[in-house]
Amino acid sequence: MSVYKHKDSPFYHFDFQWKGDRFHGSTGTANKREAEGIERLQRERAKKAAVEARKTAISLKIDDIAGRYWLEVGQHHVGADTTERDLARLIGYFGPSKLLTEITDDDVARLVAWRRAHRRTVHRKKPAKDAPLPPLIAPATVNRSTTEVLKKLFTRCKAWGIKFDAEPRWKEHWLEEPEERVRELKSDEGERLDAATRSDYQPIMDFSAASGLRLNECLLKWTEVNWGTRQIQKQGKGKRRVTVPITPVIREILWPLRGHHPEFVFTYVAVRTRGERERGKRQPITYNGLKTAWRRLRSAAKVADFRFHDKRHDLATKLLRKTGNLKLVQKALNHRNLKTTLKYAHVLDEEVAAGLQQVQKSRRKSRKHVRVAD
After folding, report:
1. pLDDT tens-place string over residues 304-330
2. CA pair distance 252, 99, nearest whole angstrom
3. Rounded to two decimals, what is the model's pTM?
4. Partner residues linked to 264 by β-bridges
5. Distance (Å, rounded) from C-alpha 182 to C-alpha 143?
6. What backbone torsions phi and psi does residue 96 show, to the nearest 5 degrees?
7. From the CA atom positions of the chain, what is the Rg in Å?
8. How far is residue 35's CA from residue 1's CA, in Å, rounded to a whole number?
9. What domains can be seen in the chain, in order of their start residue?
């Protein structure tokens, strides 16, 4: 019986289930044939609603989750190419149909072990046949390119309203990383780097050394440069606002660049025509382009074991040695916590040693003076 009369109502009612959901109510008519027509209409509406619900429901497949994450977040990262590769790696490992809710601690442990066996990418045009295998990737690379990326997918899903009965215990899968070393430029390394730098890349190299900004933070837009307040303000690590004063040195670097590009501060001159890039025309320096330029520059200058990020360390150590003020260095580097700045404290240790030496010399002079007086 598709419709029925309710004892407390003169109208026919409908009551049916579709895909586990119950639909019931009054047809608003005492005519059975009309009531049956209304009941059929309600069934069609229920079917259409179920189809639309399936369309808008969040798929838990890692391929779909990663795709939505990319559209909402990943493509806007400064290093978007890296994010895309990291997401593709996860999809390739688990398979596109793996449900995120099915990923367990055991799955993550196996993933980390698999990633730890990967080796660093060596950029050579023609690798030598007898060349040794590249070293294994560092624990920090495993953490940031794999575990952290997967965790971000879980975090994003929770923001979408998805609940996990047993989310992996991420701390147990985080590999221990050695303390970040502090590397300064030695002897004539700075001069060799300057001598090997292309003229169009010289401004951004000088700016990074003078500002202490991270690589992605050096990719300035003119809207972030305020000549009136003499400040550069932009979004940095952790979406925190980074402020850099426009000192006379930084002004000298930036001022001649006006007019090179309407949006981006730092540009390079294309050496060949490719796609929309025309030989001899200025193009904005990109994240990956700067990484490549730095790698080539470091090789040409024969400066080993000095990353772009080490420019930041170099400035910090020199600033601390000059001022002896950790809080000042913390503010200059835009560190949230002073503990992060304490890795440069070895510079203060040198000052302590020098101070102790001065005290010891004074005491020796005093003793000699007393002995002569006796």
Report:
1. 989 999 898 888 888 888 888 888 888
2. 54
3. 0.56
4. 221
5. 21
6. -65, -25
7. 32
8. 12
9. 3-56 (no CATH), 62-173 (no CATH), 189-307 (1.10.443.10)
